[in-house]
Amino acid sequence: MPVGLLALGTYVPSKVLTNEDLASFLDTSDEWITSRTGIKERRIAEINEFAYDLAVKAVEGLLARHGEEALEGVDQVVVATNAPDAFFPNTAALVQNHFGLNAAAYDLLAGCPGWLYALAQATGQVQMGLARKVLVIGAEVLSKITDWRDRSTAVLFGDGAGAAIVGPVPEGFGFRSFVLGADGSGGGALHMGALASSLPGGVRTGRTIYMNGREVFKFAVRVMDTATVEAIEKAGLKKEDISLFVPHQANLRIVDAARARLGLDWERVIVNLHKYGNTSTASIPIALKEALEAGKVHSGDHLLFVSFGAGLTWAAAVHTWYEA
Ligand code: UT7
């Protein structure tokens, strides 16, 4: 049974933090951040706004666009996040309760590719008949786990959320391939602690994001290339068949390397990281929604998604767009 994206909604907090703002309290500059990352500004959640609040607003955005009936038949809710409100209850259960859904609920922790991982799980569940429709959310308040004294990470991340409904689509549409992967040997390169104060390999963890940027950069360029090529092949397509590339919005240089390897011109790549920074699991849905609003996505278009992040993990998918 073909399964794909049926509806999409997003939310970003209204508070904007510019590179100039960062330079007022960190030893950094707009010139450094722009040239090394492409990021100009990012959104920051209010003090009392958490992943659950952003997730609910993203779903409300979806309902405003597609109507209340979009939630009919949703019997699972998944929230991919790296900054949940609590260990438990899971954030998805809070969302399930908010919308009064008769649905199972779980959170998914897989670094930035979490939303793509969750789409893969949802697609499999619908194909197996374990769910009719799944509400798949990526919601992040990374500003709350950022060390604001660390210029090597504080300039990169932003807050936001994206929500999609996954369900049956007509023949010839929907997800054509998924590629999911992990290499835990690189876990020390990007981490934040929880209960244990150290990880295998003697990595000492703290309560804010730690990253070895150079190591993650090299990993990212490598897996963006291999995962996209594999996803296109698994989909039975060629690079030139890709209508739109929607990559994880982490760093313009990483996006550019992947774009060049795929032989795509910028017209076929969605980039909005200059406005939002890296919103982790929310970055692809936010970028996709912008592409839809800009009229860059049409029924039958082959979309290529790819992401990488903490774990270290990666994911890619090809989806043939269906417009009802
Ligand atoms: O979703 C996954 C999340 N992770 C990523 O996507 C991160 C991938 N990595 C990157 O995007 C890049 O590695 C960074 C943007 C994080 C860093 O860029 P880079 O070109 O790899 O810089 P670097 O880490 O090699 O640092 C170069 C210099 C260093 O100074 P020295 O040692 O050359 O004197 C840093 O201390 O830049 C310095 N630096 C900064 N200077 C001004 C690091 N951060 C800053 C800063 N402002 N914010």
List the helices and strands and how they pair.
Blueprint: E1 3-11, E2 15-18, H1 19-23, H2 30-37, E3 41-44, H3 51-66, E4 74-80, H4 91-98, E5 104-108, H5 114-127, E6 133-140, H6 151-154, E7 160-168, E8 174-182, E9 190-191, E10 198-199, E11 203-204, E12 210-211, H7 213-234, E13 244-247, H8 252-262, H9 273-276, H10 283-293, E14 302-309, E15 313-320
Parallel strand pairs: 4-5, 4-6, 13-14
Antiparallel strand pairs: 1-7, 2-3, 6-7, 8-15, 9-12, 10-11, 14-15
Kindly list the characteristics that best describe this protein.
10 helices, 2 domains, 15 strands, 324 residues, 4-stranded mixed β-sheet, alpha+beta, Peroxisomal Thiolase, Chain A, domain 1, 5-stranded mixed β-sheet, binds oxa(dethia)-CoA
3D structure, described in words:
The protein has a five-stranded mixed sheet, sandwiched between helices. Strands 8-15-14-13 form a four-stranded mixed sheet, with helices on both faces. The chain has a two-stranded antiparallel ribbon with strand order 2-3. It folds into two domains: 3-168, Peroxisomal Thiolase, Chain A, domain 1 (3-Layer(aba) Sandwich); 174-320, Thiolase/Chalcone synthase (Peroxisomal Thiolase, Chain A, domain 1), CATH 3.40.47.10. It starts with a strand and ends with a strand. The chain has ten helices and 15 strands. The model has no long low-confidence stretch (mean pLDDT 97). The chain has helices at residues 19-23, 30-37, 51-66, 91-98, 114-127, 151-154, 213-234, 252-262, 273-276, 283-293, and strands at residues 3-11, 15-18, 41-44, 74-80, 104-108, 133-140, 160-168, 174-182, 190-191, 198-199, 203-204, 210-211, 244-247, 302-309, 313-320. It is α+β, with helices and mostly antiparallel strands and 324 residues long. The structure holds oxa(dethia)-CoA (UT7). Oxa(dethia)-CoA binds next to helix 2, helix 6 and helix 7.
